[in-house]
Amino acid sequence: MKRAVPRKAWPHRIHVATRTFQALRMAVNGELEALDALLAAIPGLLKVGGRAAVIAFHSLEDRKVKEAFRALAGGCTCPPGLPVCVCSGVGDFALVTKKAVAASEAEVEANPRSRSAHLRVVEKVR
Q1: DSSP character for 48?
Q2: Does any domain span residue 26?
Q3: Fewest Cβ atoms nearer than 10 Å: which of 4, 36, 73, 119?
Q4: Nearest CA among 71, 56, 61, 88 for reference residue 122
């Protein structure tokens, strides 16, 4: 891989093969499909006041979690054809973390694997 990818294109502080092997692992293990199944199951798993916390280590995973949590906490769920909102625009979930929480510099120094971790939390409120 070092010979196939020019040095200028290498990611900063990450070996050139890291993302390739990460993508292979994710595909072989079906990680994105498992994440989709988990995110779909969250509403049925939590009681009111319960929280779901997900740590994503890859931007694809983080995007899926972000979109799923925003959909759960979203406002109006009325069909698009209705002229007036009848659901009062209140979701069953609330975002506990508006943005993903990343590891601090001290944490990354102590635990280098935490550098790509992003934590998102949602709470069932109804």
Answers
A1: T
A2: yes
A3: 4
A4: 71
Domain span at residue 31 reads: 7-124
Is 79 a domain residue?
yes
Per-residue pLDDT, 68: 94
User: Cα dihedral angle (37, 39, 40, 45), rounded to 10 degrees?
Assistant: 110
DSSP secondary structure code for residue 78 in this structure = S
Residue 66 sits in a domain of what CATH number? 3.40.50.150
Please say whether the beta carbons of 93 and 52 come within 8 A: no
Higher pLDDT, 88 or 50: 50
pLDDT band at 2 (very low <50, low <70, confident <90, very high): low
- The model's pTM: 0.76
Within a domain: 1: no
Distance between CA atoms of 30 and 17, rounded to whole angstroms? 20
Residue 113, pLDDT > 70, answer: yes
Question: Is 88 part of any domain?
Answer: yes
In angstroms and rounded to an integer, the radius of gyration of the C-alpha atoms of the chain is 19
Please count the other Cβ atoms lying within 10 Å of the Cβ belonging to residue 5: 13
The structural domain count of the chain equals 1
